[in-house]
Design goal:
Layout (H helix, E strand, L loop, with lengths): L3 E4 L5 E3 L6 E4 L20 E3 L19 E3 L2 H7 L2 E2 L5 H10 L12 H12 L10 E4 L8 E4 L2 E6 L2 E6 L2 E7 L4 E4 L3 H8 L16
Parallel strand pairs: 4-6
Antiparallel strand pairs: 1-2, 3-4, 3-5, 7-12, 8-9, 8-12, 9-10, 10-11
Length: 208
Amino acid sequence: MPLRNRATPLGEIVADPGRGLVFGNRGCLHDDDGTIRRRYNGRRWIACRLDFRGRRRLLLQPHRYTELFFLDEATAFAAGHRPCAECRHEDYVRFVALWPAAGEPGTRPGADAIDAQLHRERVDPATRGQRRAEASLDELPEGAFVLHDDAPHVVVGGHLHRWTPAGYATRIPRPAGRATLLTPPSLVAILSAGWRPDVPLLHPSATG
């Protein structure tokens, strides 16, 4: 049976046999038996490389962070994760430079400030579930996620591609009007600024 360690664009954690192209965590979410007990633990939600300096981990160890896997960086962004400052240091430096407040004098943010802002944007304080916004589909950059027909879709050029744990499935022309935005607004701004990470932004199925 696959482990429950795949994160979706809805911020949920599901079981699926594929591991995805991006690794990450949001604290220890499992108990000593490896059962997921909480949606998050803390504000530091990060997205990492799958491989870094040959490190290997046993999954779901007691009292260690819960290893999560994302289809790609766009999925990690939709779930509210940002690049790791250790294994993706160059990405993190570029991310900070593109952060919406970084252009203002004296406002170069640290990780704690970024994580606090993202936490406000990704978590509904009333339900502790995913917080969502509204946006114009015409203005969204490639890699942003929206809800369409109650399913997560990613923006790729003039189309929306439906997300699945194994890759992107059906695509439709990008409609006009407004939609429910899944990707936190600050991360949409990063994508709009021309974000090009050193991990896959989109799974190959998005362009196949």
